[in-house]
Amino acid sequence: MAGSTIETLPSPAAEYIRDIDRALEAYLDDRNDYPGQLLEAMRYSLMAGGKRLRPLLVLLSAKVCGSDPRAAMPAACAIEMIHTYSLIHDDLPAMDDDDMRRGKPSCHAAFGESTAILAGDALLTLAFEVMAKDIQPPATAAACCVALASAAGAANMVGGQVDDLAQESAGADADRSLEMLESIHRRKTGAMLTTSLQLGGLVAGASQQKIEQLDNYGRNLGLAFQIVDDLLDCQGDESQLGKRTQKDSERGKLTFPSLMGVEASRERAAGLITRATDAARSLGEGAEPLVALAEFVLNRNR
């Protein structure tokens, strides 16, 4: 795959990412009521970098729906807090057992398991505090809270992770069908990406038609993202990824390359990105950053 970095995206993506980082930092500033080690662990993981894909989708979807993206910044920060909490917990020994994340020791490796668990819990709850307090009007804040809770909860992200772990532990008795694999990842990964777009649309007061167009884009983007993730695990460069590779195959996990093969997986990802870009273009003027972001997801190397 060709190399790609988020900085290669056209304006306003790179500028938005800088704004997201500043806003996230501001939400952790002056938290004198937080225990010091807990705040340090939260900051360590939240400000460790990464693609900022989910908050970027929030801002881009708000803009394409005709809103000032700054109005959607609390939602953008909230979904990145939820994403970071999920990474902290996924890395734990009881889950995916990863000791590296974004080129640094995972939160539990740096701070211990108990602090890492609590840092994840704190980010999860802070996300809803941020949206409830800072999104206006209150009815929109409530709708955003419902959408994000659904995406992050038992029916989607958490449930997808449960089924992913169950598949791994089932061994030879696991359901190794494409339907099961796609079901896991549409919930575990795809729901949060799709909801990122919904949040931007909700803040912008978008029509139901536009929300459905954003959903179509997000569903295809989310599954393509996971396929590329699986390909990077089996073929990526650890120094670029900032985490161990080959870990899924070592654990016998059900992945797209293990089920379909590498070339078929690449073709599937490319087809999904074509559908995503078609959906983005249906949104009309101003959708090019979403098109470029989809192409970035296909060609990313980390």
What key phrases describe this protein's structure?
mainly alpha, 71% helix, Farnesyl Diphosphate Synthase, single chain, two-stranded antiparallel ribbon, 15 helices, 302 residues
Report on the structure:
With 302 residues, the chain is mostly helical. The protein has a single domain (10-299), classed as Farnesyl Diphosphate Synthase, CATH 1.10.600.10. Helix content is 71%, strand content 1%. It has 15 helices and two strands. The chain has helices at residues 13-28, 36-46, 53-64, 73-90, 107-111, 113-134, 138-152, 157-170, 178-204, 208-235, 238-241, 247-250, 256-260, 262-281, 288-299, and strands at 100-101, 104-105. The chain has a two-stranded antiparallel sheet with strand order 1-2. Strand 1 and strand 2 (104-105) form a beta hairpin. Helix 3 (53-64) crosses helix 9, helix 7 (138-152) runs antiparallel to helix 9 and helix 8 (157-170) runs antiparallel to helix 9. The longest helix is centred in the last third of the chain and has 28 residues, at 208-235. The chain starts with 12 loop residues before the first helix and ends with a helix.
In which range does the helix fraction lie? over 70%
CATH architectural label: Orthogonal Bundle
- CATH class placement: Mainly Alpha
What is the 3D shape?
globular
Question: What is the C-alpha radius of gyration, as a whole number of Å?
Answer: 18 Å
Find the CATH superfamily: Farnesyl Diphosphate Synthase
Whole-number mean pLDDT: 90
